[in-house]
């Protein structure tokens, strides 16, 4: 999780989560920072590449999840908010469809919108339509 230091420098800091992490694809499958550095991509292009990489290596991801999940486990799948991942390609849909099928999941979605979009009606409508 990236966080800004008090001195204004953007550097990664570890933030403790209030739950155990079953799988962090950024650590165990593909790393966005490495992709951006190695391929010379920006954040959105790097995310597109990472999601396509995950889609093409989904057998490995499913095996990692299956080996760690317990029967009473609830999975929280946290996805990036960049709209390009959902409007310009089908990789997220394909990943979720495959996870649903292979892991026998029932999905429930929660969409979080930044508060500043909620303060202005036109911004809220735009955010809601793109969600």
Summary of the model, kept short:
Helix content is 52%, strand content 5%. The chain is mainly alpha-helical.
Description:
By secondary structure, the protein is mostly helical. It is built from eight helices and two strands, in the order ββαααααααα. The protein has helices at 25-28, 32-39, 43-56, 58-68, 84-87, 91-103, 115-118, 121-130, and strands at 2-4, 10-12. A two-stranded antiparallel sheet has the order 1-2. Strand 1 and strand 2 form a beta hairpin. Helix 2 packs across helix 3 (43-56) and helix 3 (43-56) packs parallel to helix 6 (91-103). 5% of the residues are buried.
Total helical segments: 8
Q: Stretches where pLDDT falls below 50 for ≥5 residues?
A: 1-10
Largest sheet: 2 strands, antiparallel
What does the radius of gyration come to?
17 Å
Total count of strands: 2
Mean of residue pLDDT?
85
Strand order of the largest sheet: 1-2
Could you spell the SSE succession in H and E letters?
A: EEHHHHHHHH
Structure classification: mainly alpha
State the end-to-end distance.
22 Å
Q: In percent, how much strand structure appears in the residues? A: under 5%
How much helix is in the residues? 40-55%
Given the C-alpha coordinates, what overall shape results?
A: globular
């Amino acid at each position: 999780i990236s966080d800004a230091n008090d001195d204004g420098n953007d550097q990664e800091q570890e933030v403790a989560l209030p739950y155990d992490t079953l799988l962090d694809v950024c650590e165990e499958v593909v790393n966005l920072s490495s992709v951006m550095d190695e391929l010379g991509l920006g954040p959105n292009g790097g995310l597109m590449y990472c999601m396509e990489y995950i889609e093409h290596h989904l057998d490995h991801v499913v095996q990692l999840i299956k080996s760690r999940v317990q029967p009473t486990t609830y999975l929280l799948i946290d996805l990036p908010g960049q709209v390009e991942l959902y409007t310009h390609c089908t990789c997220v849909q394909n990943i979720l469809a495959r996870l649903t099928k292979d892991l026998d999941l029932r999905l429930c979605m929660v969409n979080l919108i930044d508060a500043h979009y909620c303060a202005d009606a036109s911004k809220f409508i735009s955010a809601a339509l793109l969600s």
